């Protein structure tokens, strides 16, 4: 039994149970499945051997390595499974078969993709994450959500297609698709590297490719946004760490990615959109670390991803709980909710201080590794950008979210506290945020627990850790200097907030839509398509009509052929066909005679 | 749940003064846990006290920096108060840039023709 | 499976398989016409097509019994060529025959509910008879080794097709002009072809294709041969709906009875394309200096034009049938592109796509027939919300649709990969780009339909949950699952295509 459990990719189990869950009508039975399956998944993962291909299938002559655990993907997979467990608890108050099932299948696809041992397997589950997650947006049931979900699906599938293209190049060049030391790229000149980079870049929401995220997540269901926040982007981060460690361009992309969302988050009114921008900013830290590529940096990316999945989920949960009770997540319509939702307030604050990286909270032990790695490698400007972004995180996620929702200007809204299941999920997430950040008074507990799971440990380092040739050192987050500087950064920023607020310099929260680069395809792009459609419908026939008047019958026929309404049916296209036959015959004869 | 409907020029809801007094001080209106956890927020002197407290902490942190020499990989970061000033400056820059950026990028909520983004699984819609 | 079926057939029958494959439907067709009601005629047709299918399987086994592919030469009535007519079955013929008979058999089973709904009782027996004639004509084209005989079979199938298309008039009067157009165009194509054959006969004095191939070697610069080549290429191109000679097709597909559309879409153009390949690579050959240029200057541009222009046209159609019809022309473009590469890999990819497209379009039009049967209309609006009211039909439709697009793990993906590989090997990397672009258009036009089916609410909310009848659902799902089977285990069909292409290039028939 244990040997069987240890050889099945836990993601596959989640996918299968997820699809079955869509068909189970009894709410409690289905929800028991949703909660229990991630737990079983964690057990399966714990039993799995590291570093060997545990399940192989041969399809179309390609060996698919369905399950391969090593120290790099272990921590990502574990984080996904924990997130999936928390999400299932968070969703207990709803009775939505499709959403429950698809959320689990989506999580499963992310887990399965993480443990994929080759590119083809990765591609398959990559696409399943795209298709299953779209339901979490669709179930919101609004017109806006429907349209956003279609845009989302299009972009996600495009990412898959690019991955497939790259994969084809890799296969042609290497004759194998396995993801091991040889599987990672060394430069963009490697066959397929550019395609695969672009595919990952879309999913990781790189700058200018990012707005599917801010477009779709805030329009998802209450539960859906929580689920979505955990998987797709972190899967992309893992994929980058696996295949593109040490690519210098990632450092700069990551640094830019941390900075620009800060400005959007300041003026955005929809708090779930603020969190989406914040998500982008956090991804920037991880991408930057992968670009550095030293063992310390890879550890930083992995630890940050783990901590981030939990605290970002927690923040989405708390805003979701408010949305669920109040019916809006707009900062301008919220405020003073601490009076009626104290537990939600408390958990939200824990999430906020975690993401802001206050000492004793998970962001502190995770993010500082990245900062330290960047400084060690001497990237001065990048380091300064990340430091700026750290203060920015405090602004939009650390202060704006809890302050404008629960304190600030009292909206006068009095609601019930969030449902118990939501509080339970938030409580567990809060516990994890603190538990993995406490100083290691007892070895193996506190942050040591997290650090022991990291990819680059002295005992079992992942392949990527050795590539840079740097020594693997034990990182110590709780030094006097580190605590001091972090507190200086954060407390002075808090002081800045208080002063700006007191002197009325803080921009008020106002309702509105903030333009981002998606404007390009949602306004001019959509307009262009619409315009083309109108032209096709109206001007087209007129134009061909005019041309037909000039050039006689032949053009009439052409118009008949190309007009969509099928005028052909009225008959009389025989002569045009006869003409075409004759023309073609002439052309063929000509070619034949010339070629002879 | 009481929901005010009028808004001021900034889009905030205008509250009836009488209502708010009642809400703030009505004993039944507050969650019992909230009284324990956040009762102190209600106190009128809290904002000032908080500000003073934060200023004191900041001065303290700055003072430590003056007497303690930190070791950094990037030497310019060893300057006294570097992190403190950077944090203050970065935060202020991010917030203040909200004024021009808001003017530049903010459009009406119905700009893309999708004003209703509240999902169907919120309590009121069920 | 193949061995099992072969073992059931007595040796005497197996020895005469080529004659029986054509002969049994030929005898049963008039019998079906004499039946008092349509149901009996239908049962006869099932028997006839089923029998032909068994014969096709037997011949496939015979051809595959020898390494590299045997060639069955069957002299009709014992008259040897040159005087007599020869049936000649090699790896290519056997593949096409298997395709036509399989589709024919499934189509016959599926057809009854659709025929009952769309054809008047008095005409059903005649209808089935005409269908059998069409079926045997197509089989004959794929089996014969005689150029003139090929013309005869082509005309047998075409003339019966005009009748079949015209019978759609019960449902839609526009079937009559569509049929008349098709008649005139088909006649032009056939005339071109027979003129071309006449030229070849004048130059060589033989009509047997194998003989022709040999004697043409010495007549490479004969102007009559050149003219014959041009006439044959254009004539068969018209029959195969080569762009821009495809214009008969959309209307013929859109207005004929659903059953006929399904059968024609999956077989008729495919057989004509087979004939084209046969003439290009067996009767003529790449040794003919002009042939390479026509591949590059005629077939390739026409293939690409079809892939792009007709995909665009498909995007703008409002009637799903017409979308699929234009898509068919575009898919013929893929096959022409494959063939025009002129390498074994290219021709193999073209043939592979030919089979896959038959399986895909067969499934799509079957599902469409189910929709016509239960909900009448075929415009995009009629498709709205069908995912909820007819999930089984529409799931099969969706499988075939993603296969048409070329999503991995489906048949369409396999043949597009094969085509892409062949293009790459030949250095035509831009061809890969065109394939990708055309696939993108396919995403759009099929995506529109799938979106309406699965995401839109029905216009008429009273639309009841109503699946297509089981007689439609079973063959439909066989074809839908075949799409996935070929997609996952593409080896069998790809192997057939490879063998077929190889037989052309090592001179199987020569």
Question: How are the elements arranged and paired?
Answer:
The complex is a heterotrimer of chains A (596), B (126) and C (510).
Chain A: H1 2-5, H2 10-21, H3 27-47, E1 53-59, E2 62-68, H4 71-90, H5 97-114, H6 119-138, H7 143-174, H8 193-203, H9 211-216, H10 222-230, H11 232-243, H12 248-267, H13 271-292, H14 295-326, H15 342-355, H16 362-376, H17 380-406, H18 420-435, H19 447-452, H20 463-467, H21 480-502, E3 513-514, H22 518-522, H23 524-551, H24 553-562, H25 574-595
Chain B: H1 17-25, H2 32-42, H3 46-67, H4 82-96, H5 98-105, E1 106-107
Chain C: H1 2-8, H2 11-15, H3 17-34, H4 38-64, E1 72-75, E2 86-89, H5 91-118, H6 121-143, H7 147-166, H8 175-204, H9 209-216, H10 223-239, H11 248-255, H12 258-283, H13 289-315, H14 320-341, H15 344-375, H16 386-389, H17 391-405, H18 411-425, H19 429-455, H20 470-488, H21 491-505
Antiparallel strand pairs in C: 1-2
Helix pairs in contact in C: 1-4, 3-4, 3-6, 4-5, 4-6, 5-6, 5-12, 5-15, 5-20, 5-21, 6-7, 6-12, 7-8, 7-12, 8-10, 8-11, 10-12, 11-12, 11-14, 12-14, 12-15, 13-14, 13-19, 14-15, 14-18, 14-19, 15-17, 15-18, 15-20, 15-21, 17-19, 17-20, 18-19, 18-20
Q: Main traits of this protein?
A:
heterotrimer; A: 596 residues; mainly alpha; 3 domains; two-stranded antiparallel ribbon; 25 helices; B: 126 residues; 2 domains; extended
Description:
The complex is a heterotrimer of chains A (about 600), B (about 130) and C (about 500). By secondary structure, chain A is mostly helical. Chain A has helices at about 1-5, 10-20, 25-45, 70-90, 95-115, 120-140, 145-175, 195-205, 210-215, 220-230, 230-245, 250-265, 270-290, 295-325, 340-355, 360-375, 380-405, 420-435, 445-450, 465, 480-500, 520, 525-550, 555-560, 575-595; strands at about 55-60, 60-70, 515. Chain A has three domains: about 1-235, no CATH class; about 245-520, no CATH class; about 525-595, no CATH class. Chain A contains 25 helices and three strands. In chain A, helix 12 runs parallel beside helix 17. Chain A is globular. Chain B is extended and about 60 Å long. Chain B has five helices and one strand, in the order H-H-H-H-H-E. The two termini of chain B are about 15 Å apart. Helices cover about 50% and strands about 0% of the residues of chain B. Chain C starts with a helix and ends in a 5-residue tail after the last helix. Chains A and B meet through helix 7, helix 10, helix 12, helix 14 and helix 15 of A and helix 1, helix 2, helix 3, helix 4 and helix 5 of B. Strand 3 of chain A pairs antiparallel with strand 1 (about 105) of chain B, so a sheet runs across the interface.
């Amino acid at each position: 039994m244990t040997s069987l459990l240890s050889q099945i990719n836990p993601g596959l189990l989640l996918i299968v149970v997820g699809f079955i869950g869509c068909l189970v009508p009894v709410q409690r039975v289905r929800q028991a499945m949703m909660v229990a399956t991630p737990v079983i998944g964690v057990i399966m993962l714990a039993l799995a051997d590291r570093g060997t291909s545990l399940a192989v299938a041969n399809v179309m002559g390609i060996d698919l390595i369905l399950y391969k655990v090593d120290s790099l993907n272990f921590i990502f997979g574990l984080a996904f499974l924990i997130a999936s467990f928390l999400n299932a608890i968070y969703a207990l108050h709803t009775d939505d078969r499709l959403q429950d099932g698809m959320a689990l299948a989506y999580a499963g696809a992310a887990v399965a993709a993480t443990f994929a041992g080759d590119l083809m397997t990765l591609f398959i589950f990559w696409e399943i994450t795209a298709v299953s997650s779209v339901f979490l947006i669709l179930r919101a049931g609004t017109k806006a959500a429907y349209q956003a979900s279609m845009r989302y699906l299009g972009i996600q599938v495009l990412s898959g297609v690019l991955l497939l293209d790259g994969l084809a190049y890799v296969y042609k060049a290497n004759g194998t698709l396995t993801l091991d030391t040889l599987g990672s790229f060394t430069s963009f000149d490697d066959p397929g590297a550019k395609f695969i980079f672009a595919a990952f870049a879309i999913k990781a929401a790189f700058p200018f490719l990012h707005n599917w995220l801010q477009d779709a997540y805030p329009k998802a269901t209450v539960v859906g946004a929580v689920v979505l926040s955990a998987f797709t982007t972190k899967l992309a981060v893992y994929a980058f760490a696996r295949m593109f460690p040490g690519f210098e361009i990632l450092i700069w992309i990551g640094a830019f990615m941390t900075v620009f969302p800060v400005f959007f988050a300041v003026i955005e009114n929809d708090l779930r959109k603020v969190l989406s921008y914040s998500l982008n900013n956090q991804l920037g830290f991880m991408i930057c670390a992968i670009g550095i590529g030293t063992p310390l940096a890879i550890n930083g990316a992995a630890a940050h991803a783990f901590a981030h999945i939990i605290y970002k989920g927690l923040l989405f949960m708390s805003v979701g709980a408010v949305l669920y009770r109040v019916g809006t997540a707009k900062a301008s319509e919220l405020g003073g909710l601490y009076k009626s939702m104290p537990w939600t307030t408390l958990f939200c604050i824990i999430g906020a201080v975690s993401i802001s990286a206050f000492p004793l909270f998970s962001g502190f032990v995770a993010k500082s590794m990245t900062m330290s790695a960047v400084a060690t490698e001497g990237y001065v400007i990048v380091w300064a950008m990340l430091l700026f972004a750290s203060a920015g995180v405090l602004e939009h996620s650390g202060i704006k979210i809890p302050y404008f929702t629960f304190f600030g200007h009292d909206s006068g809204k009095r609601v019930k506290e969030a449902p118990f299941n939501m509080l339970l999920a938030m409580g567990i997430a809060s516990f994890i945020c603190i538990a993995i950040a406490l100083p290691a008074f007892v070895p193996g507990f506190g942050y040591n627990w997290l650090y022991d799971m990291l990819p680059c440990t002295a005992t079992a380092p992942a392949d990527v850790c050795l590539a840079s040739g740097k020594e693997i050192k034990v990182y110590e987050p709780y030094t006097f200097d580190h605590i001091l500087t972090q507190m200086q950064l954060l407390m002075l920023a808090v002081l800045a907030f208080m002063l700006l607020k007191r002197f009325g310099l803080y921009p008020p929260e106002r309702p509105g839509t903030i333009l981002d680069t998606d404007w390009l395809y949602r306004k001019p792009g959509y307009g262009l398509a619409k315009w083309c459609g109108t032209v096709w419908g109206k001007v087209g026939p007129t134009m061909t009509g005019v041309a037909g008047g000039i050039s006689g019958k032949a053009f009439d026929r052409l118009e008949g052929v190309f007009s969509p309404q099928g005028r052909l049916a009225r008959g009389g296209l025989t002569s045009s066909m006869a003409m075409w036959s004759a023309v073609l015959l002439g052309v063929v004869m000509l070619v034949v005679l010339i070629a002879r | 749940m009481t929901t005010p409907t009028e808004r001021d020029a900034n889009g905030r809801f205008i509250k009836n003064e009488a209502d708010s007094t009642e809400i703030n001080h009505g004993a039944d209106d507050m969650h019992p846990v909230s009284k324990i956890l956040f009762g102190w927020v209600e106190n009128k002197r809290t904002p000032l006290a908080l500000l003073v407290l934060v200023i004191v902490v900041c001065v303290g942190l700055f003072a430590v920096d003056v007497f303690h020499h930190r070791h950094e990989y990037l030497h310019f970061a060893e300057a006294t108060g570097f992190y403190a000033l950077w944090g203050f400056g970065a935060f202020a820059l991010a917030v203040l840039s909200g004024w021009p950026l808001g003017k530049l990028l903010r459009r009406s909520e119905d700009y893309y023709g999708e004003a209703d983004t509240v999902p169907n699984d919120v309590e009121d819609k069920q | 499976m193949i061995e099992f079926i072969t073992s059931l057939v007595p040796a005497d029958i197996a020895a005469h398989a080529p004659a029986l494959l054509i002969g049994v439907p030929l005898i049963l067709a008039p019998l079906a016409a004499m039946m008092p009601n349509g149901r009996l005629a239908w049962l006869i047709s099932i028997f006839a097509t089923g029998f032909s299918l068994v014969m096709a399987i037997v011949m496939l086994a015979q051809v595959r019994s020898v390494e590299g592919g045997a060639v069955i030469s069957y002299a009709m009535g014992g008259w040897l060529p040159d005087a007599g007519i020869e049936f000649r079955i090699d790896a290519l013929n056997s593949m096409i025959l298997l395709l036509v008979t399989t589709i024919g058999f499934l189509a016959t089973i599926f057809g009854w509910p659709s025929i009952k709904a769309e054809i008047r009782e008095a005409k059903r027996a005649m209808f089935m008879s005409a269908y059998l004639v069409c079926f045997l004509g197509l089989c004959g084209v794929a089996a014969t080794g005689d150029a003139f005989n090929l013309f005869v079979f082509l005309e047998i199938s075409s003339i019966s097709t005009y009748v079949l298309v015209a019978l759609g008039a019960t449902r839609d009067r526009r079937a009559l002009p569509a049929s008349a157009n098709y008649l005139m165009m088909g006649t032009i194509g056939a005339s071109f072809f027979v003129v071309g054959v006449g030229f070849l006969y004048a130059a060589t004095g033989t009509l047997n294709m194998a003989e022709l191939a040999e004697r043409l070697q010495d007549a490479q610069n004969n102007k009559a041969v050149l003219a014959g080549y041009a006439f044959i290429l254009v004539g068969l191109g018209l029959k195969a709906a080569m762009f821009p000679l495809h214009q008969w097709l959309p209307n013929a597909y859109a207005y004929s009875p659903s059953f006929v559309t399904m059968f024609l879409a999956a077989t008729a153009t495919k057989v004509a394309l087979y004939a084209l390949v046969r003439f290009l690579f067996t009767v003529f050959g790449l040794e003919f200096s002009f042939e390479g240029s026509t591949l590059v200057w005629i077939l390739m541009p026409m293939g690409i034009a079809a892939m792009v222009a007709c995909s665009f046209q498909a995007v703008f159609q409002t009637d799903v049938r017409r979308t699929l019809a234009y898509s068919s022309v575009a898919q013929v473009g893929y096959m022409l592109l494959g063939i025009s590469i002129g390498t074994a890999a290219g021709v193999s990819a073209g043939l592979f796509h030919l089979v896959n497209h038959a399986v895909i379009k067969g499934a799509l039009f079957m599902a469409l027939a189910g929709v016509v049967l239960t909900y009448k209309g075929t415009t995009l609006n009629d498709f709205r919300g069908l995912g909820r009211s007819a999930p089984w039909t529409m799931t099969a439709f969706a499988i075939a649709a993603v296969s048409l697009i070329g999503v991995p793990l489906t048949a369409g993906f396999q043949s597009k990969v094969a085509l892409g590989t062949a293009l790459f090997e030949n250095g035509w990397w831009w061809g890969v780009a065109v394939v990708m672009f055309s696939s993108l258009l396919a995403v759009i036009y099929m995506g529109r339909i799938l979106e309406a089916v699965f995401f839109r609410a029905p216009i008429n909310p009273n639309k009841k949950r109503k699946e297509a009848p089981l007689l439609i659902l079973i063959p439909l799902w066989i074809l839908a699952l075949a799409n996935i089977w070929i997609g996952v285990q593409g080896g069998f069909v790809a192997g057939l295509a490879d063998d077929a292409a190889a037989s052309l290039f090592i001179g199987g028939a020569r």
